[in-house]
Each structure stands twice: as C-alpha cells, then as structure tokens.
Amino acid sequence: MLDGGIAGGVIVEARNAVKQFVIKTGLMNSRAAGVVRAVDDVSFVIRENQTFALVGESGCGKTTVANLILKLLDLTSGEILYRGASLADMPSADVKNYRRNVQAVLQDPYGALNPRMRVGHIIGEPLEVHGFAKGERAGRVAEALQSVGLHESVQSQFPHEFSGGQRQRIGVARALTLHPDLIVLDEPVSSLDVSIRSQVLNLLKDIQDERRISYVLISHDLASVEHMSHIIGVMYLGKLVELGDAELSCAEPLHPYTASLVAAATPPGSTPGWRIPIVGEVPSALETPSGCSFHPRCPYAMAVCREERPALAATPDGRMVACHLYPDEIRNVDKQAPVGPGGAALPVAAGAG
Q: Which residues pair with 17 in a beta bridge?
C-alpha cells in the first residue's frame, strides 16, 4: 500500500472500506429501489504530521469518507483503524477518547457556530463535555484563541460580530482545545472570500508545523490541495482512481479524471500538462457505468474500459492509479490532443492554452 513515505506513525488506515446506502421508495419507504455504493473499496494511510487530501466533484464520496473517519457513519464492509485499533470493534469507553483525538472543522463557518452562545462557551464546550475542570478549560480556550490569531477578549462576543474568516478561526480554535492528533477539514475555505482563503490555509499549515497535527482535507480546489497536502486521493463515484504525492499529482496527473480537474483549475494563460476537458455529467450513483466508471467522459476510453474495471495499481514513480492506460508501463499517449471514444478529436478546453 502506498502511504506517502513520510516519517511518522500511522494514525488512521482504511482497508477496503465500503459504505452502501439503500434507497427506498413506496408507501412508508417499504421497497428498496437500489443501492448506492458511496464509498467503494477505498484504502489509504494517514501518518503523523501529514495532510491527506480527498478531491473530486460533488457526489464522489469525499464527505462520506470523512464521516466514516469521524465515526458519524458505520462501514458496510472493510475496516478503518485508529492507531491499529478497529473503529468497528472499539469499546464505548474508547470511542469517547477517539472523538477527543479526532476533531473536525466544518465547511460553513456561519452555520457551524451556535448564534446564541458566546465565543468562549463555543470553544470551551468540547472541554466541558470531556470533563475538564473549569480552570483548565479557561487556559486551553485562551491558548487556542492565541493559536488562531484572536485575542482572548473575544470570548464575550457572539458569532454574528465576526467575519467569515474570523468565524472559521473560531471553528479551528474549538477543534484545537482538545489537543487532537487528527482534524478533518471539510472544505474549510470554500465559503470564504478569495482574499482571506490563503490566510486560513497558512494558519492551518502553521498550526500543523507547531503541533504535528494530521489533517484530512476534503476539497475540490486543486490550488488549496497542492498548497496544503502531502498525499492526494482522487475519488470518482466512490472509488479512488489516483493516489500519491500531492505536488506530483497536481503537476503531472496520471489519471485522465485527475488531469481534467487540474485543467479545469488552471488559470487562464497557463498550460496544464494534459489539455483535457471534462466531458458530460457525473453519472447517477444508482446506475454506475460498467467497467471503468469514468469511461463515458474519458477522451482516451478503449474497448477494455467499457468492459473491465481497472484495479488500483502502483506506477514506476511510486503513485497508484486505476486506469487501463497503465497496464504494465505508461503508454505513449498524446496528452495534448485527446480524442473521443469514437476516434474524433475533442476540442481543447477554453483557457487551456
């Protein structure tokens, strides 16, 4: 298994994780209409002081993976381990300790904070839940506020008195009070103004360097991923299609889907490594295509792609990719002139250079 090669103990490991949701219909939801495999045989490793990013379009399964790690959902099959212990078999007494060590920062800083609670109470509430004495709570709240660049005097204020960036800092401070070793960041800057996104991202990096915290970063913003992450996992319809070094995957993507995400995020005037547009829409999760699920949108699709699902396999540079373009060695494909399934040339995306 590819784990990034970064020194440090393993904090979380997913092994063949599967999460299915049964869709019901009819009177009183009495009839099963189908099954959605929101997470489909996903495996990865997260190490100490490492940021593991999950990227992909909406509905690809990123947030479901995050909820499985946070133990807000239970696996259908497979397992997730925390420091070697299975979450599924974890005694209730250990679950509370797990929730103390694994925290989350949510996407919406406006909806994540109780508008009726003062900031000091919001940040200190996790400490109260976990039984910390009042004196220690006060010290940890002040410490957390200092870590995110806010003065401790803001404890008496309410969330509506702060900007979106300041609210997200409050959310980060709340996650830090318990001194966790892993924080799940669910689109932490997507709802913020562009002008302050880099401030929050740099704050998170500084906190990681200072406290050796690991992050799971859920994002569709490739710029944030490349800036923040060590390892990137690219998901499509519940499956990992590429896994490897974040900087390398953003600069030289292996899978056509990764390449399309990079091309879509490339600023005008710059040329991505693969000039490949995203074609069509994401298929319904209830009716996933046969073979490789990306083949209806892939400009490099071959006959085998429609018939056989590619396995996630290692490439010579140490990454992993699930694509029939890489059976034994990298094929010599013309990445600058993609063609469609029928052989017709595809138009280059606008702004691709």
A: 42
Closest CA to 86 of 12, 16, 184, 183: 12
Q: Please count the structural domains in the chain.
A: 2
The verdict on 44 and 149 lying in the same domain is yes
For the cut 90, the answer to whether the pLDDT of residue 225 exceeds it is no
Position 1 in a domain: no
- Of the residues 193, 225, 251, the one at which a domain ends: 251
91 and 195 inside one domain: yes
Least confident span in 3-12, 141-150, 227-236, 255-264: 3-12
How far is Cα 274 from Cα 250, in angstroms, rounded to an integer? 11
* Greater pLDDT, 338 or 351: 338
Q: Are 204 and 344 contained in the same domain?
A: no
pLDDT of residue 131: 92
- 222-227-232 Cα angle (round to 5): 60
The predicted-structure confidence for 160-204, as pLDDT tens digits, reads as follows 999 988 999 999 999 999 999 999 999 888 877 877 888 888 899
Structure token pair of residue 123: 């940040």
Q: Is residue 306 part of a domain?
A: yes
What confidence tens digit (pLDDT) does each residue in 259-317 have? Answer: 888 888 877 767 666 767 677 788 888 888 999 999 999 888 889 999 999 999 898 88
Which CATH number covers residue 92?
Answer: 3.40.50.300
d(CA 113, CA 109): 7
Final residue before a domain boundary, out of 218, 251, 284: 251
d(CA 353, CA 3): 34
253 near 28, Cβ under 8 Å? no
Give residue 244's domain range: 10-251
C-beta of residue 180 within 8 angstroms of C-beta of residue 100:
yes
